[in-house]
């Protein structure tokens, strides 16, 4: 059972590690294609935080932000393979930033529904 658990973690984490590698390869002087997607999100986040906090926030460099996401994905995937929960905590922010809260909530809801259906079906076997 231990090998199956390790293999499952390895396959799951490989998605994040390969995604981080692809982002690293595409990373250039402008931050790559992901930076173009994140600029509007960072602008909205900065406006919301500055209006709620009442202070101006410093500029966030898109290249540093993308590099941080790449680092979190890579390190989180490696730590997740070896069973560290810290790896999962590194992966969550990178997914939320890249895909948005609404899409993550929608996918999470669908996942919980499928798990519930699977559990109810296996109880009758």
TrEMBL record:
Show the InterPro entries listed in the entry: HR_lesion (IPR008637)
Transmembrane segments annotated in the record for this chain: 65-92
Highest rank taxon of the organism: Eukaryota
- Keyword set, alphabetical order: Membrane, Signal, Transmembrane, Transmembrane helix
Signal sequence: where? 1-22
Q: Which Pfam families match?
A: HR_lesion (PF05514)
Task: List the PANTHER family hit by this protein, alphabetically.
Answer: HR-LIKE LESION-INDUCER, NICOTIANA LESION-INDUCING LIKE
- Name of this chain's protein: Transmembrane protein
Q: Which organism is it from?
A: Lotus japonicus
């Amino acid at each position: 059972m231990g090998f199956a658990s390790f293999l499952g973690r390895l396959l799951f984490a490989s998605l994040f590690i390969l995604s981080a590698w692809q982002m690293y390869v595409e990373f250039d002087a402008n931050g790559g294609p992901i930076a173009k997607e994140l600029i509007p999100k960072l602008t909205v986040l900065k406006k919301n935080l500055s209006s709620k906090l009442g202070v101006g926030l410093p500029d966030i460099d898109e290249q540093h932000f993308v590099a941080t996401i790449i680092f979190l994905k890579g390190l989180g995937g490696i730590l997740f393979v070896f069973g560290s929960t810290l790896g999962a905590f590194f992966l969550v922010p990178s997914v939320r930033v890249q895909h948005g809260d609404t899409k993550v909530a929608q996918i999470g809801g669908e996942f919980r529904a499928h798990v519930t259906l699977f559990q109810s079906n296996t109880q009758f076997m």
